[in-house]
Amino acid sequence: MALPRVLVLVLAGGAGGRLQLLTADRAKPAVPFAGVYRLIDFPLSNCEHSHVADVWVSIQQHPASLAEHLANGRPWDLDRTTGGLLTLPPSQGTERAGFSTGTANSLWRQAELIRAFGADALVVVSADAVYELDYREVADAHLQSGAEVTMVTTEVAADDAARYGIVEVDGDRVTGYAYKPDEPATTTATNEVFVFTPGPTLDRLEQLRSEVGEEGLEDLGSHLLPAQTRDGLARAYPLKGYWRDVGTVDSYWEAHQEFLSPEPPIDLDDPRWPIHTRGGRHSAARVLDDGQIENSLLSGGVRVSGNVRGSVLSPGVVVEAGATVLDSVLLPGVRVEAGATVTRSVVDDGVGIGRGCSVGGEGAITLLGLGAQLAEGTEVPAGARYPDDETS
């Protein structure tokens, strides 16, 4: 018996404004994570290990930053003669042309292509979370349930629940859905992985479009998911393992701290489920002279002569003698010169931190934007957004 035909659509077009300076010049799915990875590596690796060979990526914001990383899809076994990786940038020439205004609007724009593909199950995922999940297993459960949509769910902190789509469930049946509610009824949230039955879902989307207009479709949680829930056609699929939304600066920093644990929440090198990425071009990391490292992740090409503790150093980072990096995330090519101190900060690509600079401190996370160059002795206080803040 042939396996059900599964299509994965990665919605990678959002502006990622909550990540502030980190997405000023790159797509959110292209944001580095844990040194050598990008956020989109997690859903693409899930596709590979789920034996899903048809993966479409809808891109919109800063497409070059993502297209360069995706290339032909080889790291995720998607460089195929038939099927494989397909990127979907905004286009002209049809009645559905133009830029999307939300995730449901994006799905509507691709409806004709999806219908023509003829999938049994359509898996729609975002690319701003860190997790492992067998998409085919979820698709199989969905097809057996007879539902129109299956929402993969996870438990979130009560004080954070208002950021998510919140569901109420009875067994596996979703009885209530609210998108980013002011007063969440539960702490059970959708984790932005949805399995749809394509035909009925796209028909419903067309009906909603006739009612609210093209731009009024907005996000999946605005009209589509509530309508499917009201009609009793929504099911829940609890994700038992780790899941972390890294769509804010604070959650991005906190996720890195979790991966510095002696027992990280996901083994990125697990031979049964490795996270794959585009191959690096850096030599081995080096700890030089009097360099001291404690509880940190070092990527290829890193050079450390100073003191690094509780931090993640991406490829090509240099920490000079006498410099100190504490509880921070340094993205590719950052240079911390002698005598500088970086504390509880996220530092973007290519930032130069001059001699004797002081960046961050106890309290809110500090963020240094792409390519910033701090002159000798500059002080950037805890919680600052540089160069947005007047700090120089």
UniProtKB/TrEMBL annotation:
SUPFAM superfamilies: Nucleotide-diphospho-sugar transferases, Trimeric LpxA-like enzymes. Transmembrane segments: none annotated. GO terms for molecular function: glucose-1-phosphate adenylyltransferase activity. This is Glucose-1-phosphate adenylyltransferase. Belongs to the bacterial/plant glucose-1-phosphate adenylyltransferase family. It comes from the Bacteria. Pfam families: Hexapep_GlmU, NTP_transferase. Keywords: Glycogen biosynthesis, Nucleotidyltransferase, Transferase. Residues 9-259 form the Nucleotidyl transferase domain. GO terms for biological process: glycogen biosynthetic process. Residues 290-361 form the Glucose-1-phosphate adenylyltransferase/Bifunctional protein GlmU-like C-terminal hexapeptide domain.
